[in-house]
Amino acid sequence: MYERVVDVPRLLAFYRTGEPLPHPVLDEARQALSAHYAAELGEPFTTAGLCHYRDGRDSVAWHGDRIGRGAREDTRVAILSVGTPRDLLLCPRRGGDVVRRPLGHGDLIVMGGSCRRTWEHAIPKTARAAGGRISIQFRPHGVQ
Predict the structure, then answer these.
(1) Tag placement on the chain: N or C end, fewer CB within 10 Å?
(2) What is the pTM of this model?
(3) What is the Cα–Cα distance from 26 to 23, expressed in whole angstroms?
(4) 25-73 residue pLDDT tens
(5) Which helix (DSSP H) or strand (DSSP E) does residue 37 occupy?
(6) Span 11-133: which CATH code?
(7) What distances in angstroms separate CA 74 from CA 29, 66, 115, one per listed residue?
(8) Residue ranges of domains in the chain
């Protein structure tokens, strides 16, 4: 980050197009989401990123997705939450009110349209007891 190497406060895995996912149910979820959004997206979800938040100390700082077509064009990312609920924070990139949405086990949030270009999001640390959570992000090819 900013020309420094820092520890990532969560565990990460990324599965490229064509790589097998760690469990068959993830392939089924990706296929179902691709079928559901085919008309709007015009292409399937082909990659998957997994983030393991081990407890309330793991987090992701405010950021906006800027790699791939999301930097200039609208696309979609489908995020499936598994495990202990955690809050997702959203805020317009140019400032404004923060929106807090709890994501629980089995919840799906799909960020698309201009949201990926004009809003930032974060999963903050929490002092309350929090068990593990895995976030699975399905994306079209070339979008991170």
Answers:
(1) N
(2) 0.85
(3) 6
(4) 999 999 999 999 988 888 899 999 999 999 999 999 998 766 555 445 6
(5) helix 24-41
(6) 2.60.120.590
(7) 22, 11, 8
(8) 11-133
